[in-house]
Amino acid sequence: MRSIRRALLVVIATAAALLASAGPASAHGGVVGADLRVAASLGERELTVIIRRVGAVPGPLRVDVVNHADSPGGTLRVAAAPQNNLPGAGNELRLTDGGGSAGTALDVDRIGAWELWVDDGRETARIPFVVPGDVTPAWERVTTGGYTAAGGLLLAALAAAAFGRWSWPPLVLGGGAAAAVVAAVTAGLLSSGLPVEAEIDPATGLPSTARTQAAARPHVDLLADAALVAGQRSPIDLRLVDGGTGRPVDDLVVHHDALVHLVVLGPGGQFAHLHPVRTAPGEFRVWFRPASGGEHRVHAELERWGGGVQLVDAAVPATGPAVPEPVAGGPGERDAGGMTARIEASDLVAGEPSVLAAEFGDGAPVRDLQPWLGMAGHLITAGPDGTLGHVHAMAGASAVTPDETVAAGGPRVEFVYTFATPGRHRLWFQVERDYRVVTVPVEVDVAASEDGS
Questions:
Q1: Residue 185's pLDDT is what?
Q2: Going by DSSP bridges, is the β-strand pair 74-82/112-119 parallel, antiparallel, or unpaired?
Q3: CATH among 3.40.50.2300, 2.60.40.1930, 2.60.40.10, 1.25.40.10 for 332-446
Q4: How far is it, in rounded angstroms, from Cα 67 to Cα 233?
Q5: Which residues of the chain have pLDDT under 50?
Q6: Which residues, 6 or more positions from 160, have their beta carbon under 8 angstroms from its beta carbon?
Q7: 134: which of 28, 149, 412, 423 is 20 to 30 A away, CA to CA?
Q8: Of the candidates 396, 443, 391, 388, which has an alpha carbon nearest to the alpha carbon of residue 415?
Q9: Which residues belong to the signal peptide in this entry (predicted)?
Q10: In the chain, where are the structural domains located?
């Protein structure tokens, strides 16, 4: 009898230890979706719209809008509606000058594809998002169920040991608790090696394997229309057309916190990194003030659902005199948005990876950089042949949480990039501080490799 009681205590102690050491399972495992951040160049404002994940349907939808420092304050109207439906009156959201954030709550009553309408009184951005169904992965069901069953069995075992007349019921119950915990822990440990769960279909909000099975999407044709005048802010209208069907492309997904990253390069060296707003299916608009007359190249980086990232471009003319930008200068130290930026870029050879860095200070090392577009920093490159590159800061000690309300980055931001061609390249380092995007232009010379490429 004594040996049975000793075995019973060992079983119960083991189950209790496993329960105490096991971490709690996530309630949704990410299936309900994460917060969605979307950069939007709406009118004269540079915004980041944050659509918080929905915990239950029907339920509240929290929307926060970050206004950047160089954008004016004012009132926006924010509303949400299922796709192909008109929204109700929505809520007013007041933005302050000088940067910062404001938020409001809307109601959602069904899963599926939705649009967030953000209206500045002149134009309306229609941002697609999905309210997904709450579908728990199989491994998570096993993990959660195992912990729950183990807890119940353990309590029953303790009660049986305290009040029961026989020794075998607590032993059986304790053994069941230990087995349930082992099953739960095993499922959690093996989860990373299990087949990928079905992704959420953006049209239905339900699990689908369409993304993993889909073939590469056809190339996107970019059609740009604008009547630009040097020194004046004017709209650039963009149409995205499927290269295979000629139909509007309306299956973009958020890629690095934007539906479309648009880089505008002017003939005199002018640079702008903008994020056009979706005004209708396949149609986008952004406002731009050219500094010079002449042809401007617009490069759009985007990603289609079920496909990969594409970089497409077009040209728009601007009337007015040609005004060259000041020469950017080479690596070294220069003023940058109230800071000093020390640019490091040496021994650059075409076809070989290079480390490029920007280190910021203001009398002391700057340690309050904010992430922009989910990254600690961005680097845009333009080669002598017109090719464009867009890379992000290396992860490491300077990496920060991808939320603009967190200011803990810096002072050093590093990038790894391989220049495809020799010659003179233009670079633009971009970071954010105090809700202001700071751009540091640089020109570098890239040597040819030893084999002449």
A1: 66
A2: antiparallel
A3: 2.60.40.1930
A4: 19
A5: 1, 4, 7-12, 14-32, 210-214, 397-400
A6: 169, 170, 173
A7: 149
A8: 391
A9: 1-27
A10: 2-28+136-193, 36-131, 216-319, 332-446
Do 69 and 99 meet the contact criterion of CB atoms below 8 Å apart?
yes
CA distance 441 to 329: 8
3-state secondary structure of 83: coil
Reference 171, options 187, 154, 151; nearest CA is 154
pLDDT digits (tens, 9 = 90+) for 18-42: 444 444 333 222 333 578 999 999 9
Residue 440 has which token pair?
């540091």
Taking CA atoms, 121 is separated from 37, 94, 224, 286, 372, in Å, by 22, 13, 24, 15, 26
pTM of the model: 0.78
Asked whether the beta carbons of 412 and 355 are under 8 A apart, the reply is: no
- Tens digit of pLDDT for each residue in 170-218? 676 667 767 766 666 666 666 555 555 555 665 556 666 544 444 567 8
- CATH no. for 216-319: 2.60.40.10
